[in-house]
Specification:
It is a single chain. The protein is of the alpha/beta class. It has one domain: Phosphoglycerate mutase-like (Rossmann fold, 3-Layer(aba) Sandwich), CATH 3.40.50. It is built from eight helices and six strands. It has a six-stranded mixed beta sheet. α2 crosses α3 and α4 crosses α6. It is globular. The chain starts with a strand and ends with a strand.
Length: 221
Amino acid sequence: MNVITFNLYVVRHGQTYFNIYNRLQGWSNSPLTDKGIAGAEKTADKLANTHFAAAYCSDTTRAMHTAKIILDGNKADSVKEPTISNYLREEFYGYYEGNDMDQTWYVAGAPHGLPTFKDIVTKYSIGKAKDFLKEADPFHQAESNEEYWKRWDQGLDLIRNDKNIHDGDNVLLISHGNAVLSLVERFGEGKYDVTERPANGSLTKMEVSDNQVKITDYNVQ
């Protein structure tokens, strides 16, 4: 069987109201702001002449809205609609969905002497931050690192198994801040700073094959 390699253009969704309010929005949602719509349109302009053989996004409205803006602005005869999958959602923050981001990471990290998300990631990893949050969740429903990757690996396999994607093709994926960071931590070979979140509308590029993923660009604005 021939192994194909394709280019995955991973775009973080446009700015939302929860982004402004510094609130966690994993499986919860808030609409794109006017700035978020304008930012998505700017990204659409940059990608207008890139042909996408397939497009994917999570089933959150912020991702679907961003995908529509980018695909509607495409002039390269790309696919018109994204494939929508809950496998591609942001991390689930459980009890802390919608909470202030800094307060939540304090609750998760402070028992370990690490009061900020950056502190946790610097000493351990984004994966450990997920595990600390699950531990802090009184319902223990926030996703652990293992649970998160079990879901996301299904999402990556969904894309890999798309019969419309051929060797050398470009594929669009509208994603989320922590999801992008998690991909870059796992596949970036330590070359990128994952203590800082990617900007809304930014582009991260990956080369994906059946058995390998390589980050080639991160947080391009």
